[in-house]
Amino acid sequence: MKYDIITGNSFCEEIRPYYPSIDEAEDLHVSQIVNCVFNAFLSYNTVMLNIATIHTITKTSSLPKPLKTLLLSLAASDLGVGLLVQPLFITLLIQWLQQLSPSCIMYTSFSVTMNLFLTASFANIIGVTLDRYLAIQLHLRYHNIVTHWRVIAVVIFIWLLSIFLSLRMFWLPSTIKYLVLAVAGILSVLVTTLLYIKIYLVLRRHRNQIQALQVQQRAQNGERTANFANLRRSAVGTFYVYLLFLICYLPRFVSLITLQIYGPNIPLKSFSLCSLTLIFLNSSLNPFIYCWKMRNVRQSLMSILRDDFRSMFGVLFVRMFYHG
């Protein structure tokens, strides 16, 4: 099949059956309205929350620079979801509700941006997991091996890889594309899960060592206990980010498999739309995980909010005094 690089005709013909058609407008009407309204509300929250998260992480000086860089990259990918991917999805939903057939350029733009930011988000989560594992495993050697510039190079690689993978649809056949996606996704989840198991085992070993030395070296053990507690909190915080990622992405993975096995039908298309919305919800929930489980980020956010409140109160006081 000949491919048109401008309109993406071959690609559109391949994916159109998996999206709502004009003939199915009445059957999917309720599902489309619900997803449209929810994404309109969610898109604004995703943008605002991730802008606040990026600002907060930038101002949190107590975070290690490698972890801060990876978290900023993750927040940037979540911001891209709210800023670009969800508005494109809402546009598609509105066109389907109006019983219009979206153009190939519209389908292609949505698919490329979605794959770009979701792949970057997943890769950044793996990077954060690996960083926390190395921080716990290497301990004192961590700062010598995991330098800020090396992490920046990794982040650049993540985004270049995400761009490359988001364009894979233009040259891979459908069966190979979904096979590569399934294998890469399963391997990534397995590797990340194994890393968190290793983190748990290392943390448990460190805790036992600290408890054994607690009586003999009380003075020196205080600093070690504090460092261990900080590492544990950051590891637990990133684990919740990963767990939330799995919960939000698993339905989409299931929908892609079932669509390939059973073919497109009304219930599966409705489920597919909802699974996309659940993926986008993940980008809105991540900032809450940062503030809930990472004390450094939470304290920095509270400090910023207090300063902003004081500044706003000061401005109002001056204006009232001036007008009075």
Describe it for me?
The protein is mainly alpha-helical and 324 residues long. The chain contains 10 helices and no strands. It has helices spanning 9-15, 29-59, 65-97, 104-138, 142-145, 148-166, 174-213, 218-262, 266-293, 295-323. α3 packs antiparallel against α9. The model is unreliable at 1-8 and 312-318 (pLDDT under 50).
User: Which blocks of ≥5 consecutive residues have pLDDT under 50?
Assistant: 1-8, 312-318
Structural class: mainly alpha
Give the CA-CA distance, first to last residue: 76 Å
Task: Characterize the largest beta sheet: strand count, sense, and whether it forms a barrel.
Answer: none
Separate helix tally = 10
Question: How do the SSEs run, as a string of H and E?
Answer: HHHHHHHHHH
Structure characteristics:
mainly alpha
Break the fold down into its secondary structure elements and pairings.
Elements: H1 9-15, H2 29-59, H3 65-97, H4 104-138, H5 142-145, H6 148-166, H7 174-213, H8 218-262, H9 266-293, H10 295-323
Helix pairs in contact: 2-3, 2-9, 2-10, 3-4, 3-6, 3-9, 4-6, 4-7, 4-8, 7-8, 8-9, 9-10
